Amino acid sequence: MNNKTLIFPMLGRAGLGNELFPVLRAFDIARIEDAEMLPPRWMQIRIGPWLRRELDSRQYWKIFSPSPVRKRLYALGVELCVAASERVPFARRLIEDVQVVKGMDGYFSPLEQPGKYYQTYIRSLCRPDQLSPAIEAPYISFHIRLGDFARSSPEAKQVSANNTATPLSWYTDQAVKLHARYPAIPIFVSSDGTDEELEPLLRLPKVRRTAAKNALDEIFIIAGACGVVGSRSTFSAWGAFLGAVPMFVMNGGNAYMPHSMVWEDDRPESFSSWLAAAEEGISAEHR
After folding, report:
1. What string of DSSP letters covers 184-215?
2. 269-277, long-range: CB < 8 A, 24+ apart
3. What does the DSSP 8-state code read for residue 40?
4. How does pLDDT run along the chain (287 residues), one tens digit per residue?
5. Cα distance between residue 243 and residue 178, in whole Å
6. What residue spans define the domains of the chain?
7. Of 3, 22, 57, 139, which has the fewest Cβ atoms less than 10 A away?
8. Read out DSSP for 94-141?
9. Spatial CA neighbour of 270 closest among 158, 107, 162, 190
10. CATH code of the region 140-286
11. What residues pair up with 197 in beta bridges, in sequence order?
12. Nearest-5° Cα angle at 257, 116 to 248
């Protein structure tokens, strides 16, 4: 136990997947300590996505309902004090009653509740027009992280470094294998890549992009799938974690360990083991 009366999740400038870690750790601490949680400061100037012409502008403040002005101003003051605390001792004294939570330490392991518990909490923070209705029919989700990630060789057999994209050819191989078993199951693609980059996958039967409204909407679409074929990305991992969805990744891709139902493509039987777990949600008409 600690004697802090306020908990503040301090965000960086990363993508939504990385930012959710301090937010949900702070939520857990506030709940356990019966303390007040200050709102995350979602409103930030992000020039990088614009310069790189990324599809996701990372304007996450548009997704979440605004907190009272008093709390937002207090949170801004805390963040300024944290920034100044190394040089100005007085700034440290101003925030002695605040526990600052930041970073991604431990990824999912510090989170004490099942993923669907946190999904309910996150939904409660959103503006009502920012999330799509749930997709009722069974589907498989492919999450393909491209954006500012480094590209792997199309012949690569593993993805062992962070911020590295899985080759698109690997996803097309998984789609072909999936439809050989279940030709009617739709595949919804979530990606920050362009249609041109994804064209070899999107031209396959029953494969199409989602109509997600924003990054969080994409995460919830992944969370609603029967199974996910993912990237070495916290974004893939959040979808798998929040929905308790079986996930299949390229060899080396399970960097964040959202739960125990993740298979890496490191042996011939791995795909079959993942598919067996995903089959529980696939209805008879899609088999």
Report:
1. T--EEEEESS-HHHHHHHHTSTTEEE---SSH
2. 271/174, 271/177, 274/227, 274/246, 274/247, 274/248, 275/178, 275/181, 275/227, 275/248, 277/227, 277/246
3. P
4. 455 689 999 998 788 999 999 999 999 999 999 999 999 988 766 555 554 555 566 678 899 998 888 888 888 888 888 888 767 777 777 788 889 999 999 999 999 999 999 999 999 999 989 999 999 899 999 999 998 888 887 878 889 888 899 999 999 999 999 999 999 999 999 999 999 999 999 999 999 999 999 999 999 999 999 999 999 999 999 999 999 999 999 999 999 999 999 999 999 899 999 999 999 888 655 65
5. 21
6. 6-105, 140-286
7. 3
8. HTTTEEEEES-TTTTTT--S-HHHHHHHHHHTB-GGGSPPPP-S--EE
9. 158
10. 3.40.50.2000
11. none
12. 90
For residue 57 the two structure tokens come to 């502008």
What the block records as the tokens of 60 is 């996450």
Vertex 28 angle, CA 145 and 124, to 5°: 65
Distance from C-alpha of 9 to C-alpha of 283, rounded to nearest angstrom: 41
Q: Which two tokens stand for residue 203?
A: 């031209």
pTM, entire model: 0.90
DSSP-derived letter for residue 70 is H
At 135, list the tokens.
Answer: 């997709």
